[in-house]
Amino acid sequence: MPMSTRPRRALAASVVGTTLVLSGCGAQSQPRTASGPLTIGFVNGSDTAFHTCLRKAVEEEATAQRVTLYTANSRQDPGTELSNIQDMIARDVDAVIVQTVNVSALEDDITKAKKAGIPIFLTTFVPEDTADLLGAVVVDLRKVGELDADWVARDAAGQQVEVGVIAGAPGAASDLLTSGFSERLPANAEVVATAPGMFDAATAESVAANMIQAHPDLRYAFVANEEMAFGVRKAFDAAGAEDVRIVTVNGTDEGLAALKDGRFSATVTNSAMRIGELAVENTVDLLRKYKEVEKITELPIRLITEDNTELAPMYCPSNDY
């Protein structure tokens, strides 16, 4: 898989890698300036493999850009996310990069930051109104689900088939993925069961075991990330349902290996590494105004099967996730 070969630019700033400890709320009414060393906050949404790789990419790019970075994790809790934003405001950062837990939580986040004069840069998805954002790197998550649905449609070839959907945790990413998938399926592919796997392999395994017991004729399963998909595969195989075909999301090294040996049938790339790199790079460029940068950058996605695994972008800065 190809490594990123972007040139790294050095900025005159000190490098500090810091994990944020939750503290009280502060406020700044002064507008941000782009002069002097930059300090950026990163508020992550969870600790799945995707989120871990995203954090590593943000940290590595911040080091390369010589930016001081503070990090925090909201652990899928909108209330914690808002607290993390408030703590970044108290630290008087120049901008906050946010991988949100839920789109509905963003309004309060953005309002708080705007009052403090601190711009927000989002990763993966954005609200409809982007006027108050510094920028974003987005993935068309509905399209991700649609690409997996298109593969199912081609593979089913008009036959009547039963499909199961194992979502993540209720919220922005999972809702967009699963709705994109389910709404794109042809009439001959019926979704007979949907359940949340909470982005956890063990939970997804348990959900899949119940699903295959209730629907022994299941032919396909859409799973909202590869981490869960491995648990789903384990449950199906234990139930003697080795022929259920799994389509999923991410493009990790382990996921690509599962495509090659037949455990998965398709995945759609969603490179956490590239999202993290671009988030820091674009945030710096938008603050510094050194060059013209698009406010909203859409990350390319690609359907990957056993026939084209070499086209998948690198998913994570390292395999240690």
Mean pLDDT, to the nearest integer, reads 89
Q: Enumerate the spans where pLDDT stays under 50 for 5 or more consecutive residues.
A: 1-33
Number of strands: 13
Largest sheet: 7 strands, parallel
Structural class: alpha/beta
Give, in spatial order, the strands making up the sheet with the most strands. 1-3-2-4-5-6-12
Q: Distance N terminus to C terminus?
A: 17 Å
- Please identify, by name, the CATH architecture of the largest domain: 3-Layer(aba) Sandwich
- Helix count, per DSSP? 9
- CATH 4th-level superfamily of the largest domain: Response regulator
* Computed Rg: 20 Å
User: Which fold name is given in CATH as the topology of the largest domain?
Assistant: Rossmann fold
Broad shape: elongated
- Strand and helix order: EEHEHEHEEHEHEHEHEHEHEE
- How much of the sequence is in beta strands? 15-25%
> How many structural domains?
2
User: At the first level of CATH, what is the class of the largest domain?
Assistant: Alpha Beta
* Helix content estimate: 25-40%
Tell me about this structure:
This protein has helices at residues 49-64, 78-90, 106-115, 141-156, 172-184, 201-214, 226-238, 253-260, 272-288, and strands at 17-19, 39-44, 68-73, 95-98, 120-124, 135-138, 161-167, 189-196, 218-223, 245-250, 266-269, 296-298, 303-304. Helix 1 packs parallel to helix 9 (272-288), helix 2 packs parallel to helix 3 (106-115) and helix 6 crosses helix 7. Residues 1-33 have low confidence and may be disordered. The protein is an alpha/beta fold. The two termini are 17 Å apart. The chain folds into two domains: 17-139 and 271-301, Rossmann fold, CATH 3.40.50.2300; 141-269, Rossmann fold. The strands form two sheets. A seven-stranded parallel beta sheet has the order 1-3-2-4-5-6-12, sandwiched between helices. A six-stranded mixed beta sheet has the order 8-7-9-10-11-13, sandwiched between helices. It has nine helices and 13 strands. The chain is elongated and about 60 Å long.
